[in-house]
């Protein structure tokens, strides 16, 4: 018994040392408008590392389904293995984050034990990459950055074929419900001030609701010439990647300056400091997104059915 106990730590230490000594896999991947600079930390088996690089290429290409290219021509992507089931449960990508410190870096904590097919069905990478369509937004207006990424993670997964249109609307609706039920006494700005740990769903989904309302209004008012995709395309051309932090109204005013009729600041004035949750039910009804017992059905005939199809099909009028 003693002997066994004495031997195990030696084996563990040896394993850790040899794992740490193995250098990360460093490679590049070409996608529309960008070259990803990828670093896969160890230990991850060579075959799985190659699969993960291919998955990163695919997931980052999802972003080009917004306006034809990736927002940053040379982002850094770092993949860090979680060490199996030690945390993150069964998720293939338990955690991702964007850091901006002189350059834009996207980190993904992955579970190498999960099959690669599960990575493709997971929205984490599409969410994190979507963050790069906006500059860094100050934490007191965090609902803008988290909301826009939450909106885009769903519609881009649909455009890429990983979700059906119905699944995308179901996930958006479920998110809006989580947001509506979360901290109803707070406005989006107050929720952002309270912080992610205390008001996560309110922050993420109130911002996603405002992104949807902006998208509908842009498409409807312009007869399809403009959309959220078009506004973000123009934002990228003028201002991204950006090294400074933006406050919410500055960003929304900039977006308004890039479209024919302002929609962002009017939405900000209506919702940012208003308690409760933006009422998206009339918009969903006009889109033909019917809800029965929390289950979504998309209707073929509705006032804005064509606009709804453009959102999930990505017929961006560029
Ligand atoms: Zn996020």
The CATH topology name of the largest domain reads Neutral Protease, domain 2
Q: What letter string, H or E per element, gives the SSE order? A: HEEHHEEEHHHHHHHHHHEEH
Which structural category fits the helices and strands? alpha/beta
Helix coverage percent of residues? 40-55%
Q: End-to-end distance, in Å?
A: 71 Å
Radius of gyration: 21 Å
Total helix count? 14
Any overview of this molecule?
With about 325 residues, this protein is of the alpha/beta class. The protein has 2 domains: about 1-135, no CATH class; about 140-315, Neutral Protease Domain 2 (Neutral Protease, domain 2), CATH 1.10.390. It has 14 helices and 7 strands. It has helices at about 1-20, 45-60, 65, 115-120, 125-130, 140-160, 165-180, 190-195, 195-220, 230-240, 250-255, 265-270, 280-285, 305-315, and strands spanning about 25-30, 35-40, 75-80, 95-100, 105-110, 290, 295-300. The strands form 2 sheets. The protein has a 5-stranded mixed beta sheet with strand order 1-2-3-5-4, with helices on one face. Helix 8 runs antiparallel to helix 9 (about 195-220). The chain starts with a helix and ends in a 5-residue tail after the last helix. The relative contact order is 0.11. The model is unreliable at about 1-15 (pLDDT under 50). It binds zinc ion (ZN).
Any chance you could write out the topology, listing elements then pairs?
Blueprint: H1 2-21, E1 25-31, E2 34-40, H2 46-61, H3 64-67, E3 76-81, E4 95-100, E5 104-110, H4 116-121, H5 124-130, H6 142-159, H7 165-181, H8 188-194, H9 196-221, H10 228-239, H11 248-257, H12 264-271, H13 281-287, E6 289-292, E7 295-298, H14 305-313
